[in-house]
Amino acid sequence: MTATTPLEPGGAGSPTAATVGTPQRDATTAEVDQAVATLTASAPGWCATTITERLALLEQLQRTTHAAGAGWARSAAEAKGIDPDSELSGEDWGTGPYFVLRNLQLLHATLTDIAATGRPQPPAMRTEGARVVVDVVPGDRLDRVVHSGLTAEAWLTPGVTLDQARERMGRSYRIDHVREPGVAVVLGAGNVSSIGPMDALYQLFALDRVVALKMNPVNAHLGPHIAAAFAPLIEADLVRIIHGGAAVGRMLTEHPDIAGIHITGSDRTHDAIVFGTGEEAIQRRAEGRPRIEVPITSELGDVSPVIVVPGPWTDRDLAFQGDHIASMLVNNAGFNCVAGDVIIQHRSWAKRPDLLDAVRDSLRRATPRRFYYPGAEDRYELFVSAHRQAEQLGAAVEGGLPFTLIPDVDPDATDDVVFTTESFCGVISETALDTPRSVPAFIEEAVRLCNDQLWGNLSATLLVHPRSLADPEVAAAVERAVEQLHYGSVGVNLWAGINFLFVSTPWGAYAGNELTDIQSGSGTAHNTFLLEDVEKTVIRGPWRPPLTPPWLHTHSRMDRLSPRLADLTLGLQPRTLATMAWHALRG
Q: Is the peptide bond before 312 cis (omega within 30 degrees of 0)?
C-alpha cells in the first residue's frame, strides 16, 4: 500500500495469504514475522486514506460479511453441538454475523456524519451535574425498530466539559489530527464469534491501526469464514488472521514492531502479557514495572450481579423476570463474560422464594447445552463441591452439565468462590442481605457488596418494579445506585449484557482500572460514535415488554429472526421488516 493508492491490494493480499497458519496448524515464527512486516508496510497507507475511501471499504465489507454470514453461523453452531437447523441456531446468527454487520453499518453512519459535519452525531449530549451524558440508543431507525422501548446513555468521566467531549469525539478524523501508523495485535475471544472481528474494526476505524487478529483455538474453525467476511481488508493488507495457541500469542505480543495490544479473555492472560509469569511477574507487579512498552486495552469478564429490589411483584412479573434472569445464564451455555453470576435479594422479602422458584422453573425448561468451552467441567466442580445446596436443574446432554443454581450463599463469606471467581459455565448463585431497614437501605448495602466484594467491574443489573419506582425515596436510591455502581455497564430492568448487543454504545470495564489491578480491563470497544473519556454506559428497558425479547431463551423463532436482522443492516426493506415482525410477534 502507498499513500497515493491506499486501498490497492498488494501481492501479499492474495487469497492464499488470507490466514497465517490454519485451524489445524499454528503459524510459524517466519509466518508471523512476514504478517507483521506486511501490515507494517501497509500502516502508513491506511492512515492516509480519506473518509470517502473508508466509506467505500465499509460498503464492501457489508456485502462480503453478509455473504459469509450463513456459513459462519452454521459452523459456529455445529462446533457448540447445536443443530444448525434448530431454533437454537439463531443464537450464533445473532452473536456472530449480525453484530459485525451492525458494527459496519454504524461505522458507516458515523463516517458519513463526520464527512458532512466534521464530527460524529449522537442523538443528544447534555450536562447533568458534574458530568456529560451522551444519548446513544435509540440512534437510528433500526434501533427504533429492533430496540423499541430501550435506551442507552454513555456517562463520561466527571469533570469533562461538554465542549471537551465534543472536541475529543472522533478526534482521529479531524483535519489537524496527525495519524500515527501502527500494527495492533488483537487476541480474539473464543466464546462469541463477533468479538475478535469487532475489536479489529475498532482498532482500524477508531484508532487507525492495521490489525493482526489472532484466533482463539476454541473457535479457530471460524477463521476461514471471518477471512471471507473481511476479504477487502485482507486483500488491502490491512488485516491478517493468525492461528495458534499461547506460543503464537507470545510471539505477537512480544513482537518489536507492534504498536498496541487488545485482549478479550481472562485477567490471568492479561497479567502474563503485561508482567510475565513466576517470581519475575510477582516482582514486576509489586513494582508497577510492566514488561511491555506498548499500550494494552482489554475486556476480562467479571462476577456480574443482579440486584433484585423488593416490590409488589405479581405472578406474571415473577415468571417474566425468572426467564430474564435465567436467560442471562442460558445464553451461549453460560460462556459469556456478562452472564448473571450472583442474584442479590433481601432476605425478608416475601417474594424471594417465589423468584427463586421462577428461575428454577425457567432453567429446567431451557434446552440442555454442551459445555464446549475448555475447563468448564473443572470450574463447575469448583463451584458445586463448595456448596452442598447446589441444585442441578434440568437434563444434561452428552458432553454437557445441567444448569445449576446455588441458593442462599452467605453474604459475609467474602472469600466464597461465587464472589471471587467468574464461573464461566452454567452456574448461577444467589445471596440474601438481612438489611433491617428500608428498601433504600437494602439498595445501598447491595451496591456496597457489588463494589467491595465481587470480583471485577464489567456489568451489573438492577431489577425494580415500576410501582417501587413511584416511591420517590426508592427512585432516588435506584439513581444513586446507578451512579455509584463501579461497573462499565449498568442495566435497569434490562440485562446489562444487552449493552454488548447495541454495538453503538461504549463497551468495556468501569474506567480507571490500573495495570497492577486490572479487574475487568481497560479501554472501550464498539463505541461507534467514537466517544472518549467514558466512565460507564447506563441502559434501561421496560419492566415487562409486550413481546418476548429475542435474547430470552424462551424465544421460539430466533433461527428465523436473526438472519432477517442481518438483512436489515443492508437496508430497511418493507418485506424484510414484515417478515421480522411476523416472527417477533410469534416468538
A: no
What is the distance between the alpha carbons of residues 368 and 403, in angstroms, rounded to a whole number?
Answer: 8
pLDDT in tens, 293-335: 999 999 999 999 999 999 999 999 999 999 999 999 999 999 9
Q: How many helices (H) and strands (E) does the chain have?
A: 22, 20
State the cell numbers at 560: 428465523
Q: In what order do the strands lie in the sheet with 304-308?
A: 124-128, 131-137, 151-156, 534-540, 489-492, 459-463, 304-308, 340-346, 427-433, 403-409, 391-393
The Cβ of residue 538 has, within 10 Å, a number of other Cβ atoms equal to 25
- Identify the CATH assignment for 304-486 out of 3.40.50.2000, 3.40.309.10, 3.40.50.20, 3.40.50.2300: 3.40.309.10
Q: Which alpha helices (H) appear in 436-552, and where do they start and end?
A: 439-453, 466-469, 472-484, 498-502
C-alpha cell at 74: 452454521
Burial class of residue 178, CB neighbours in 10 A (0-12, 13-18, 19+): exposed
Q: Using an 8 Å Cβ cutoff, are 198 and 526 in contact?
A: yes
CA dihedral sign of residues 565, 503, 537, 527: negative
For the stretch 86-115, pLDDT in tens is 888 889 999 999 999 999 999 999 999 999
Angle, helices 51-79 vs 558-568, to 10°: value is 170
pTM for the model stands at 0.95
One-letter identity of residue 295 = P
In angstroms, the CA 451 to CA 470 distance is: 26
Q: How far is it, in rounded angstroms, from Cα 516 to Cα 543? A: 39
Q: Is-contact 526 101, C-beta < 8 A? A: no
The whole-number pLDDT of residue 220 equals 96
CA distance 383 to 404: 10
What single-letter DSSP state applies at residue 236? Answer: T
* 17-124+162-299: CATH, from 3.40.605.10, 3.30.70.660, 3.40.630.30, 2.30.300.10: 3.40.605.10
Q: Which amino acid is at 253?
A: T
Is residue 303 within 8 Å of 336, Cβ to Cβ?
no
Residue 411: helix, strand or coil by DSSP?
coil
pLDDT at residue number 15: 37
Name the grid cell of 122.
Answer: 449522537
> Which residues, other chains included, contact 312 with Cβ-Cβ below 8 Å and sequence gap of 6+?
465, 467, 468
- β 296-299/521-522 pair status: antiparallel
